[in-house]
Amino acid sequence: MAVVIAAALGGEAMAGTLPKAWGQPLHPALKIDSGDTAWVLASTALVLLMTAPGLALFYGGMVRRKNVLATLMQSFILVGLITVQWVLFGYSLAFSPDHHGLIGGLSWIGLNSVGAAPNPDYAATIPHTAYMLFQCMFAVITPALITGAIAERVSFRAFLLFSLLWTTLIYDPLAHWVWGAGGWLHQLGALDFAGGTVVHISSGVSALAAAILIGRRIGYPHEPMPPHNLTMTLMGAGLLWFGWFGFNAGSALAANGLAASAMVATHTAAAAASLSWMFTEWLARGKPTVLGAASGAVAGLVAITPASGYVTPLAAVVIGAVAGAVCFFAVGLKFRLGYDDSLDVVGVHGVGGITGALLTGIFATKLINPAGADGLLSGNPGQLVIQAVAVLASVVFAFGGSLILLKLVDAFVGLRVADDEERTGLDLSQHSEAAYAWEE
């Protein structure tokens, strides 16, 4: 995202010169645009909707009835937890002036120097606070995605502690690498328009680490564990699709042609992936399923996220179609390899994010975004190498870091609920509540 703004300004901005007072002019060339600001504020609300209620309903419908309320709670409470973290120090770590390409500092702690004036490094035509809040919603949803891999067995206090540590020590540095002014992957030229590496690869591989370390649910895979309410899941998928327009098109940070192009690519890829997953499943298993169509749409949205601001509509169709089929088969790996990824986070977000990041290196074109880069098919094979480096760095950092954090959390508070609490269900054992009043 910062690439787009930097190119629009035509030069590099001075870091560390932000105003102390709200509304104080930062640079005479910077001016708030009301249309851009309105679009980013609306996009911020759309990305919030992706977490609560979108992801909450999507995941909530896929678990068993005794765990639905706890699953909804995990997405909902992260809106509160990560927002406070972001305001206090998370945004500063991710986006404040660079330290050796690895991390921001604490100069913006408590949103010090983050006011109503634009910031030339990130968004030249909207208030800095609007950019901060837009990025906050990305930080909120990313750890929420991980919860799907460890659904129905993680303790609530362990979930809270891990989410806070993971956002601070994994998400914030990775966001700085890719989007922060001076971040090393940003300087390398890695393309990630809206979060393929930062959001989806990081959450997907961290989910794999969590699923392996916390272990299988009691009875898995021998006991049937069907979704308790696919109506809820389909509703959540629709809300995710709707909110994703803010996720991707909002990342243009302006109400312009690039935002429109990103929205077209987003919708097109989701449509293609939904069809691709459905027909692949139909051929492989004999019948198309509602869960498959919904999962396919999400896989397409994941895969197009890094590419949405750099590719043509026809390329988006290809990316979506590839992602739908690839993620369908990737989800099946958990049965062959033996890990219990409860709600298919690894197969959809991890594999989908990697697929999208690499395909960005193939299909990207400056005809769509002059501030981006050409990919392999436009005569620049080196971009595919850069994308592969970004993928590898994200996988190694997120997986290894997550294993360390999970072991620390397990040592201090214990990751998993007791066996009798798991059999009872997390709704009652963790929250003393039941989602449905007619249940005994």
Quick summary:
With 440 residues, the chain is mostly helical. The chain has 16 helices and no strands.
List keywords for this structure.
440 residues; mainly alpha; disordered N terminus
Please give a structural write-up.
63% of the residues lie in helices and 0% in strands. The longest helix has 31 residues, at 382-412. It contains 16 helices and no strands. The radius of gyration is 21 Å and the shape is globular. The model is unreliable at 1-26 (pLDDT under 50). α5 packs antiparallel against α7 (196-214), α8 packs parallel to α10 (290-304) and α9 packs antiparallel against α10.
Envelope shape:
globular
Main sheet specs:
none
> Helicity level, as a percent range?
55-70%
Can you count the helices?
Answer: 16
Compute the number of strand runs: 0
SSE layout and pairing:
Elements: H1 2-9, H2 34-60, H3 68-95, H4 128-146, H5 156-179, H6 184-188, H7 196-214, H8 230-248, H9 257-285, H10 290-304, H11 313-331, H12 333-337, H13 345-363, H14 382-412, H15 419-424, H16 426-431
Helix pairs in contact: 2-3, 2-4, 2-8, 3-4, 3-5, 4-5, 4-7, 5-7, 5-14, 7-13, 7-14, 8-9, 8-10, 9-10, 9-11, 10-11, 10-13, 11-13, 13-14
